[in-house]
Specification:
Oligomer: single chain
Radius of gyration: 19 Å
Number of strands: 13
Structural class: alpha/beta
Shape: globular
Strand order of the largest sheet: 1-7-6-4-5
CATH topology: Peroxisomal Thiolase, Chain A, domain 1
Bound molecules: acetyl coenzyme *A
Number of helices: 10
Order of helices and strands: EEHHEHEHEHEHEEEEHEHHHEE
Length: 331
Amino acid sequence: MAYASFRSIGAYVPKKILSNKDLATMVDTSDDWITKRTGIKERHIAAKEEFTSDMGVKAAELALERSGLAKEDIDMLVCATISPDYFCMPSTATVISAKLGLKNVTAFDISAACTGFIYSLSIAKAFIESGMKKNVLIIGAEKLSAITDYSDRGTCILFGDGAGAAVISATDNKAEAIIDVHTGADGEYGDLLMTPNGGSGSAHDALEQESSSCFMQMKGNETFKVAVRTLTKDVVEILEENGIQSDAIKHFIPHQANYRIIKAVGDALKMKEEQVVLTVAKYGNTSGASIPMAINDIYESGRLQKGELMLLDAFGGGLTWGSALIPFSPK
Ligand code: ACO
């Protein structure tokens, strides 16, 4: 049987920084408020001419180089994004495949908001274990600044841009295999975080729509409570089902939405400080890109070593959620 292994990681962060102090000149807020309520100090913003696909390409090039594979070896590309280059088509995954020069790939986007990377992981794992694909490039890429309303202080303080990518490859060595991936959804919570306009649900007359129609809206406080509950429950389940204790986890890598959410979940799971990976202060919430960007951070700082067990955990608009237990398995 073929197993799926997490072979390499890469990320890209745009140059421009938007600090809390910058935001305080745009809306009624302060560095102190944002820091206390979210733990975020700054976020990166893509240039006007820099698309989600461009950031995805840069992250993917790094992951590909670190995998030791050639472009021709990649047979599938999945891009998780809620800020695609184009509203309906072509998909950002196909744009990325063209920019990377990948010829023989299945390429498509998935929309699962901040859980997108974990959903992509589950798709890669399933395709590899079924024998249909051998090397899958999964990308989380977001230009959230393109769908953020910078006059809404309840949301604009949270989000940033960036991309992360990983190569998932077939292996016959079970010790290298992704142990488990959980994914779930509950559409009853769909109104907590949404872009209410711009789709067929609102487009009675496309001409009537405002240019701001794709902006995100969020019920922050309710989202916060559901997030803590969902993230904690999902981790307890995946650990129990796989007979793994939390102290066996070397790196707990939750979706980077808000420091207070991460702290509440970490405490509920009795995670030690050194187990919890935190990047929210410097990147803010980059939705589907947040987890691979965080993995790349510990990789580049030398903290992530071969064989170490990672526990990923995310929730996002939809509502969607997911978790994954993964040994880092570079060649
Ligand atoms: N600056 C100053 N004051 C503010 C700001 C701001 N940026 N935003 C809100 N406030 C005010 C409110 O108006 C309110 O004032 P009032 O008491 O006079 O009415 C007060 O602060 C408290 O507002 P709350 O909304 O209750 O603040 P809360 O502590 O919940 O923090 C926050 C808000 C940071 C948005 C928090 O709810 C949160 O992080 N929620 C989770 C959001 C999240 O993770 N979303 C991502 C989902 S993932 C995805 O799919 C993209």
